[in-house]
Amino acid sequence: MPMAQQTEVAVLGAGLMGCCAALALAERGCRVTLFERRTEALTEASCHGEGKLHLGFVYAADASFRTAALMQRGAASFLPTLSRWLPADKIAGLASEPFVYAVHRDTQVPVPAIAAHFARIAETWRGEPRWAASERLDEAELAARYDPAHVVAAFRTGEVAMDTPQVARLLGAAVAAAPRITLRTGVTVEAVRPRGGGHEVVGQDADGPLRDGPYGTVVNCLWANRTAVDAASGFAPPAPFLNRSKVGVTFRCPPAIAAALPSTTFVLGPFGDIVAWPDGRIYLSWYPVGMVGMRRDTRQLDWQAIRAAIDRPAIARATIAALAALCPAVATAAEAALDVPDVDGGTIFALGATDIDDRGSRLHQRHEVGLVASRGGYHSVDTGKYTLAPLLALEVAERIAPRRAAAAE
Fold first, then answer.
1. What is the pLDDT of residues 158-172, one digit of tens each?
2. Entry pTM
3. Which residues pair with 55 in a beta bridge?
4. Helix, strand, coil: what percent of the chain each, to 5?
5. CATH superfamily entry for domain 3-408
6. DSSP 8-state assignment for residue 387
């Protein structure tokens, strides 16, 4: 294969994982073509989730602790890695209020086991100690924030979430400014085929059928359709797996009201989240109504078609009502909303046969992620969680273009 072709890399999917992989490869001297179905990068799941930098608190059902350990690696890498490509002063202020973990009365894991899991997180975390510290709220504080009829315990932690739309805006600008990255939007990738000792990308764009290449390396970073492209490219998909389409509700309220709303994850089971940012932006998710679709096959998914088919105002009302029943401050924030609540999200892949309402579901574990298939210059990456994308991007870039080799060139 010609040397020039070896350094030509196609990255499929311009979500958080794809953009980070493209930037990491470009800084190693590769020329990257980044393929994206939408008209711009970072517009679906990477932009419309809670963006939590997981330390493993929510994975108390994984007794092996492997998921928590991996999440800690991802969280430790997240901001330092993004700081390679984004202005540090711009990302420093994008963290939410620290999370409270509120234990629902129908929790799948009892309170003592959750408390023990949280203590282990503090013991194993090697970063800033306050991030992983946890403290149980006393009865008076719990009752002041939550309805004790539904919430039986709550733990204050140092875990935060990132403002995903702002991260998307900054990262998209970094990709656009990178001289070695070409972003090709409006392309639906269907498969990757051998061509000329390398690989060609096969799909559709505005002009019809597309065959582009050859590329020395292809990195499949798609979230919703990664398994569809893998299967069409000759890689058997893992079984069983789920593609879950989820939405959340976002609105803005006065910052003073947002400051009184505790960022909260309700555990452990099919519940939801409240995320409050200092600028007054609020994100809410309630699993029973926010889960709008589930697929177990490798057919291509189109998030925009899924989104268009749902009753977004009804989902917003039901989400606000459900979370307000647990945390009354949600109702106050919603009544003070400065805009119409927006309902959006994306489709996310995960291993498992059953949903998280099953205590034994594989979805309660997320440690079998990362580079899940690799052969002849084709690499498929399961991002797993938002937290892990920068870490996994560095790992796949190091595999494709090691620093030693880059330095030698």
1. 999 999 999 999 999
2. 0.95
3. none
4. 35, 30, 35
5. FAD/NAD(P)-binding domain (3.50.50.60)
6. G
